Amino acid sequence: MTRWPLPPPMRRALDLAAEAAHAGEVPVGAVVVHAGRIVGEGRNAPRATHDPTAHAEIVAIRQAAAALGRERLTGCELWVTLEPCPMCAGAITHARLDRVYYAAPDPKGGAVAHGARLFDQPSCLHRPDVYFGMGEGESAALLRAFFSERR
Predict the structure, then answer these.
(1) Are 12 and 31 contacting, i.e. CB atoms less than 8 angstroms apart?
(2) Which residue numbers are catalytic?
(3) Taking the model in full, what pTM does it have?
(4) N or C: which end of the chain has fewer CB within 10 A?
(5) Is the dihedral of CA 141, 22, 106, 6 positive or negative?
(6) How confident is the model at residue 1 (pLDDT cuts 50, 70, 90)?
(7) Is the distance from CB of 134 to CB of 104 less than 8 angstroms?
């Protein structure tokens, strides 16, 4: 079986997830790409920032919006290491991201392929194209290691 190298945005997101784990945060990393260039990146930081909304996706979306000078991120894609939760899926919709790539599924907290399946709801304002699985093994291993150390 041939293993292809991860696309650079997912590689960066996984590196950010590892940084989050090292800082004692749940290991999730995200980047926003526009025209082939990373314009926003984030890692989970709710504990460090005392902000329950400081999920990797939210941090990356805020940074990208500031960098591009606009609240709508059309023409952009989000690369994230874990299936987005309901809050993050809502932010993705409001930001109007074109595509979402996520590494590992989240059967308990995800809201894209699991749980609320936000993008499938009739009330959803915008539905990005969704792709998953790239980097799944590495992302899942980071999460397993992080939680096994805390149990």
Answers:
(1) yes
(2) 57
(3) 0.95
(4) N
(5) negative
(6) very low
(7) no
